[in-house]
Every structure is written in structure tokens, then in C-alpha cells.
Design brief:
Rossmann fold, two-stranded antiparallel sheet, seven-stranded parallel sheet, single chain, alpha/beta, 44% helix, 258 residues
């Protein structure tokens, strides 16, 4: 196991869910952090808690990864961040609605594509050259089992996660020989704000997704990320698919009677 002491990790979408849990887990192992998110107040609150609990340096960058100019400005203006980042976790992402293509809202499609695919590319484009120049670094993309298997109403979300898988796989060719590693972590059913966001605040509908099932937690996903980034430098964990024991795939859940 490689140590994270003295490293710097950049985690996008760190105001809640997977991103927050990943940031906390990396900090617990001694990594300094740069965390990003759209909600500046929440971002500062998370940073303050991490500093207090883990005694590491945490810088905050409030911007929307969909905005290429804002992303480039925030990262370029972050002092020596791009010159020293050891780990990039591309976590910012979301699903919106659960409708057929013929009934879907193109605004929802734009937000998913712009966040899950283009935002990931914008951040990676800013951070990766420094890693390549230093001949070390680790890019972790948070994908989904939906990047392997589609489901009704999930055409566009699944397409974005298929894209994340394709980008991750192709990126390994781009950095081959540089010492930079690329991992795609692909969770199944996990209980975070994911469904609440997907159903636009409908708590009853979001809660029904997890009824009778013990889903993954954000901490489970954070553990997977930590395991991948702490392997010895000669080991690249290309992909981790993790699902609850109650799930065999997007179409197969074991639900206990309520």
C-alpha cells in the first residue's frame, strides 16, 4: 500500500455524496485536498470539517464544471495546484429524470452531457498535463454500472457513463509510458442525493428506489477509490465495478418485504 502522506488530491463535486466521502477518506490518509463544487457555502463547510478532523490543508474552488471558461479560470488561478496535484477524482455528475427519449426534456440531456462528459474532460484537460510532465499521477473517474448495461428511461444517463468508460479506457493509451494511472470506479445502486436529484426533489419517489434493499453507501465507494490510489506505482486498477449484494445488475434487485 502506497501512502498518501504529502500528496494533493483534487476532488470535483465534493459538496455531498461520493465526492464528499472520497475527500474525507483521502484526507484521513494524509492527503491535502482541493475540493470543488457549485455550492460555495456547503463547500466551505465541508472544508472546515475536514481541516478540523484530519489536520490537512484544504482549498476550495467554487465553480460549475459545465462552464469551460470558469473551470479553466478556477484551476489556472489555484496557485501551484496544477503543478503538484497527485490525484484527480472526477466525481461531479448527475442523472435527471427517468423518461423515454420521446418524452425526455432536452434541457435535462444537456445538463447530464455537459456535466458527466464535458465537465470531466474540461477538468482532466487542465490537470493532466502537469501529471504527464512529472511522470506520475492518478486520474480516477466515477462511472457507473450504467456504463455497461442500459435500462428503461436511462438512455442519456447511460450514454454519458458509457462515455466515461470509453474516455477512461482511451486515456490509458494517451498516458502510456508516463507513469500516470487511470481508474474507472463504477458503482451500482447507492444511496446518496442521486435519486433526489434525478427526481427533482421528490422525496417519496427517491426513497422508493431504495425500499427493501440495502444499497451501497458513499463510504463504500470512497473505500474503493482509496484502495485503487494506494496500490504500488506499478499497479493500475483499471476498473472497479461494485454493487450491493442485493443487486445483480440494473434490472435485478432483491427487495425484502416492508
Amino acid at each position: 500500500m502506497s501512502t498518501l502522506q504529502g500528496s494533493l488530491s483534487l476532488v470535483t463535486g465534493a459538496t455531498s455524496g461520493f465526492g464528499e466521502a472520497i475527500a474525507r477518506r483521502l484526507a484521513a490518509e494524509g492527503s491535502s485536498l482541493a475540493i470543488t463544487g457549485r455550492r460555495a457555502d456547503r463547500l466551505e463547510a465541508v472544508a472546515a470539517e475536514i481541516r478540523r478532523e484530519h489536520k490537512v490543508e484544504v482549498s476550495t474552488l467554487a465553480f460549475d464544471v459545465r462552464d469551460r471558461a470558469a473551470t479553466e479560470h478556477a484551476l489556472a488561478g489555484a496557485g501551484t495546484l496544477l503543478a503538484i496535484a497527485d490525484i484527480l477524482v472526477n466525481n461531479a455528475g448527475l442523472a435527471l429524470a427517468l423518461e423515454s427519449v420521446q418524452a425526455g426534456d432536452p434541457d435535462d440531456w444537456d445538463q447530464m452531457i455537459d456535466t458527466n462528459v464535458k465537465g470531466l474532460l474540461y477538468v482532466t484537460r487542465a490537470v493532466l498535463p502537469g501529471m504527464v510532465a512529472r511522470r506520475r499521477g492518478h486520474v480516477v473517474n466515477i462511472g457507473s454500472v450504467a456504463g455497461h448495461l442500459v435500462y428503461a428511461g436511462g438512455a442519456v444517463y447511460s450514454a454519458t457513463k458509457f462515455a466515461v468508460r470509453a474516455i477512461s479506457d482511451a486515456l490509458r493509451y494517451d498516458v502510456l509510458g508516463t507513469g500516470v494511472r487511470v481508474t474507472n470506479v463504477e458503482p451500482g445502486l447507492a444511496e446518496t442525493e442521486f435519486s433526489l436529484v434525478r427526481f427533482k426533489g421528490d422525496k417519496e419517489r427517491a426513497g422508493a428506489v431504495y425500499r427493501g434493499v440495502e444499497p451501497l453507501t458513499a463510504e463504500d465507494v470512497a473505500d474503493a477509490v482509496l484502495w485503487a490510489v494506494t496500490r504500488p506505482p506499478h499497479v493500475n486498477v483499471q476498473s472497479i465495478i461494485l454493487m450491493p449484494t442485493d443487486q445483480a445488475g440494473p434490472h435485478a434487485l432483491h427487495r425484502r418485504p416492508s
